[in-house]
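Let's do one together. I've listed all components of the complex below, 733 residues spread over two lines.
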Amino acid sequence: MNKIFPLAVVAFAILAFATLMLVILPAAQIRTVAPAEGLEPYTPAEARGRQHYVDLGCYYCHSQQPRSPEQAPDLQRGWGRPTTPSDYVYDNPHLLGTMRTGPDLMNVGVRMPSQGWHLTHLYQPRAIEPTSIMPAYPFLFEVKQNPDEDDVIVPVPPEYAPENGGTVVAKQSALDLTDYLLSLDRNYPAKDWELRDLGYDREEAR
Amino acid sequence: MSLTIGSMMALSFVVSLIALAFLIWAVASRQFRMDQGDAELIFPGGEGGDHQPDDPTSFGFREKAEPGEGTDTRHRMLLFALIGFGTFWLVFGSIFGVIASLKLNIPDWLSGSAPMTFGRVRTVHLNTVIYGWLSLAGIAVAMFIIPRIFKTHLRGVNFGWAGLVLWNIGVAAGAWAIATGWTDGMEWLEIPRPIDIILAAGGACFAIPLVMTALKRNVHHIYVTGWYYLAALVWFPVLFVLGNLPMHSGVQQATVNWWFAHNVLGLWLTPIGVGAAYYILPKIIGKPIYSYRLSLLGFWALALFYSQVGMHHLIGGPVPTWVVTLSVVQSVMMFVPVIAVAVNQHVLWATNLWAFKQSLPLRFVAFGAVMYTLASFQGSMEAVRAINTVTHFTHYTVGHAHLGAYAFVSLVLFGTVYYMMPILTGRLWPAPKLISLHFWLVAIGFGIYFISLTIGGWLQGLAMLDASRDWLESMQLTQPYLRGRTLGGTLMTLGHAIFAINLVSLLFASRREATPAATGAPATTAG
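Okay, and this is what the predicted structure of the assembly comes out as:
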């Protein structure tokens, strides 16, 4: 080959074709999909919590996309039914995830509905599951000698209690993050089933 | 809009017609008419005759500089700066990689502050090694090779300096933003959009000198390395700008995310590595690649297939079946370009093992080229649904990513830097033993890293699929393998420190007079 311009044009055209196939055509199918019945927009607190989930990088270890029963035992583990594009309409940025160093969280609000559990777990995961390798997030909490009345007090077992005494109290960021986690509920019936990857499903299941 | 089989067929028909028109034009204008002689364009004497093996460290300096060889001081200084800053980001990013790995071994270590939490440390690691190290070193290599294959000097050096400043500001600001919690929140696209504008401007400044030089070339034929580099200069800006446009949400954003992320590997990092290997391997050995015509197939098949593999990151996910299947098929089709490149490159160095033994730069590049073949084969297999169901969501994928971005691209870049620095400075490496130490540290370190994550990830995947086992087991069983990863990563990081020391040591090396190239090749070398 000995011409630059045609090389550049064909290289560009091939990428444009790939973009058509991987971005534009799927977008034509799923971009305008309506939210599933039962899916609520995030409240301001949940949206702030979601932002913490993003900026602390929770999605590098937790996926939000249960697999179909034909592929994996996600449903049996209590992670919920397989999801479809209409379950993610309010998500920006998307948090589908690529790793399960921790469990899938698409329905963690259903599986773990207690605010206190989440606050303790965020403060010190090993207080709940000794072998956990999840980071602790002590900077989302503060230790007070005399908590105010409207402070949310976090139950912490003695071995993880602050060294100088005092009570662990959740900061707004921990409360918001917990609100977001509790909001994760895709327990309603699935919509637009044909818009998810059915590559593992048996013919009769479709 | 509903996609019917009919509309897809109509689309395929139109695209085929356009492609056919281009093919007829290319054949008619003899674009594909090239022979083995064109592969010898990179040697000083040109086509025909015997070529000297070329690596100052092993075979001594050549008497005469080549056209396009960095005779211009400003050009040389720019290359040093690019490599210097690239190496800084390499060491910086590796340290963050080791910290992130250690955090999975000792989760309560450094957990007191948000910037040092795992999710941020891991992300600073990825962004600094991809955009800091690989991109800057890749641009340095391109700015070294492009003038040489076009037999002219580098034009627009000042743009290169502007690019260097902007790009470094962008990477530093990006790392700072991620550490402080300002992120766009998508893998490979974390750097916030305002900072992306700085990177885009810097990238444009890097592209201008390369394109200007290509337009002023003194040779008719464009050598294969030039195809990869020129195409990558078209691809990366399109990817980077479209990937960062804030116009997507939900699952549709996920398709954009993985279209971008896999194309950064396939259409940016891979051309950097493959292009450099296509130049350095024949150059050091003094013999052309095995089949120059085959490289044509390798290049266009890479462009066609690699650009469509991204959705294999969403197998089993909430995206339409047809687009996932398309990416699975294209992933498997990647065997075609990879085998073409493998035949061309591996036959050359494997039939010239004397050079492999003598030249340390060649050892890095040949090792990297082999890793490209292995990484791609592994990637094609991982995209097959039956295998993906085990490996997806596990540390196996992390091992694969490092096989490609590290063992392939980084090692090719190490070798290329070790080859080019003596030529640019007129100085020999003062301590070749340290180059050897660098090689063995990263080779053994990477071996430990890769084997740990591959075995650990596979077992993790099997455990996750087994309904009779608690999910927690799949995490607990990875523990010893994650410690192995930390060990391997630490050895690799030590190797990078040695690399930095080698570069600094060149400052204190004495300038040698150019000596006539010693013939490193034995009298009878199998061709």
